Amino acid sequence: MKKLLITCVLSCLSICIFAQTQQHPQLLTLAKDYRNYMFRNQPTKEVIKEIREMNDASLAPAAEFIEQTITTKNKILSAKYLTRPDDKTLKNIYIIRKVSLNMGEEKSIDNEKLIDSLMRTDVPEYELLDNYYEMLFASVGNKNQPFNLSKMDFKMNEYNLKDDTERGILFLRCMSFCGRTIWGYMNIAKPMNTQEAYKFIKKFPKFNGRPYFYYRDLFFDDFEMVVIQSKDAQSYKGYYLDKYYETLLYHWICLKKEGGTEKEIYDLLLGSILKEKALYPYTQYKETLEEIFQEAEE
User: Fold this and answer.
1) What contacts 40, CB < 8 A, 6 or more positions away?
2) Domain count across the chain
3) Residue at a domain's end among 112, 143, 174
4) Do residue 101 and residue 181 come from a single domain?
5) From its phi and psi, is residue 117 left (phi > 0), alpha (psi between -120 and 50) or beta?
6) 253 vs 2: CA distance, rounded Å
7) Which residue segment(s) compose the domain that 50 sits in?
8) CB contact set of 250 (below 8 Å; sequence gap of 6+)
9) pLDDT (mean) for 276-297
10) For residue 137, which of 81, 93, 185 has the smallest C-alpha distance?
């Protein structure tokens, strides 16, 4: 009986390992397609056909997502793709992206070995989810041109997200993407071009039916992960909340320079996290924020 049980266990393990190995060619294909077409290149009909004909059911959701990220006529901002995928799909998408990055390295790891290693690695759920929304909003930036999210209203309780941390990841990834659309106007242009930056700010999305800056559920516990590939793990909120504070301050400057009403300015100052001192440890703009509110009180 014991020998039979051991035989059954070994047989199941063999089947599982074989099934995972059978996924390798399709994971490699998806990684290559993502690498080749994630920017402005358009995939051919043959590439799309190959993706759609992949016969591994467990990879189907990841394959559908990759198709959306590499095509211009996509539905990447529909509720279907904004909704949190299951953990297995998140892991498959994570592997696809890691392999695609490896393909661009001068001293790359063998892709088959990398897939095996990643499959065995227990990646934190928040890191998997962050990777997913990073890819989603990168696709919006690369494929959905020109930028305009003014008609988007992210319903944060409708995407199967588990807690404020997961909702915060979606929000901060979205606003990191939005912030990049105005960064050049505020930093590279001399003098800063607030007129053009403000045009983009007016195209930022809503969250839960209200302008983006009213979203305040950002008091979740911090965690660490590798945010920049060439650096060690760092504070997630220390990086992305800082970027978000920067975007809010750019918005405030634009309102001041471009004739924003007193109500608009105070709605931003008092309705957003700009006044939340409990979050100041996560931003380099602490002194600037304190000065703004000191002047407002005077």
Assistant:
1) 142
2) 2
3) 143
4) no
5) alpha
6) 73
7) 24-143
8) 179, 182, 183, 186, 197, 201
9) 94
10) 81
Q: For residue 20, what pLDDT band results from cuts at 50, 70 and 90?
A: low
Rg, C-alpha atoms of the chain: 22
Say how far apart CA 289 and CA 232 lie, in whole Å.
Answer: 28
Strand partners, 224: 235
- Cβ atoms of 173 and 139 within 8 Å: the answer is no
Residue 181's identity, in one-letter code, is T
| Secondary element (H or E) of residue 232 | none
Shared-domain flag, residues 164 and 214: yes
| Residue-wise pLDDT tens digits, 131-162 | 999 999 999 999 999 999 999 999 999 999 99
- Give yes or no: residues 267 and 280 share one domain: yes
Cα 212 to Cα 54: distance, rounded to the nearest angstrom = 39
pLDDT in tens, 162-207: 999 999 999 999 999 999 999 999 999 999 999 999 999 999 999 9
| Each residue's pLDDT tens digit, 71-114 | 999 999 999 999 999 999 999 999 999 999 999 998 889 999 99
CB-based contacts of 83: which residues, under 8 Å, 6+ apart? 158, 159, 160
CA distance 71 to 81: 14
Answer whether 38's CB lies under 8 Å from 69's CB: yes
